[in-house]
Amino acid sequence: MNNKIISIAYYLGQFHPNHLNDEFWGAGFTEWHNVAKARPLFPGHNQPILPGNLGFYDLRNKETLLEQFDLAQRFGVDCFCHWHYWFEGQRILNGPFDSMIKIKENGPALMLGWANESWTGIWHGMSNKILLEQKYNRQELDEHARLLANYFNQERYLKLENKSPFLIYKPNLIPDSKNYLEELRERVKIHGGGDIYLIATWGPGAKERVNNPEELGYDAVVANNVGAYISNDLLRKAYLSYWSFRKKVGLGPEVRKYQSTVETLKAAHESVQGVVHSTVVTGWDNTPRSGRRGLVLNGFDKKGFQHAIKIAMELENKNNLKLLFVKSWNEWAEGNMMEPIFREDWSVGATFRNSIDD
């Protein structure tokens, strides 16, 4: 059994101007606009949360990427999992990954996680208008496989037992998933990309759960444990209806305890028939992006974070291939990041490093 735990932090490549953000939200928009405009929405709500020594960076600058590489090594992060946006051949926010994959200096490995869903405007205060629709067909599959094969052959792309890991968000959205993914595997091989280690995200909601990853064509799942796990469907529906109503009438955001992420993680490991990889959450507050439609995990502190890491590692150590995901490296508008915070009381990154080294 391999005793080494590989730590993988989710990475958002949103922090640079691009033409689609200009079109949707206004010229020059980046995620920093959401971060800077955040305000407290209830007593004790800590907003805005601003970046520390890295500042309001621009991911087009190589110097910024190298600073992130240096921090990742200091914080014990082995790999960045970049969110990958693919809409029938149209790609967005891929610039930072394309730049990082070419860097020769020391730093973390890289992998991709397909943000497999349509882009809508609802979380930004717009109507539920579809901005970019996620579709699936055999032509785009071959184009996608060719692109992935090229990435998998890059020296910095993470290898797990001679396989390239590829994560897919919301796996239940893919029609005829098993056949689709079998063809994806085959076409990646045809294009010279070798074998894939396919990971599906598991969430606590009825539409997010993956009870058996192999039945859908995956090798494993990774827990997305931000949401609350309520095993009774009637109680869960009542809970969701309650908060949905409150948010619609402006009585949000939803507030829940940070330690609920630990209970949801345990539920994933107990309920899934197959390999489950653990996730530790570095806080959550997406009100900068979603306002009163958002969710805040209260009680995120050093002691609670250390406990969450301890439980996640204990669960992950049961696996032969040990992958500990961290959510996230730089999701500033969703309040989960390892990067330094302005006037922080304690360092998330340093605490993570010390905890995994103990």
From TrEMBL:
<protein>
    <submittedName>
        <fullName>Lipopolysaccharide biosynthesis protein</fullName>
    </submittedName>
</protein>
<dbReference type="InterPro" id="IPR032719">
    <property type="entry name" value="WbsX"/>
</dbReference>
<dbReference type="Pfam" id="PF14307">
    <property type="entry name" value="Glyco_tran_WbsX"/>
</dbReference>
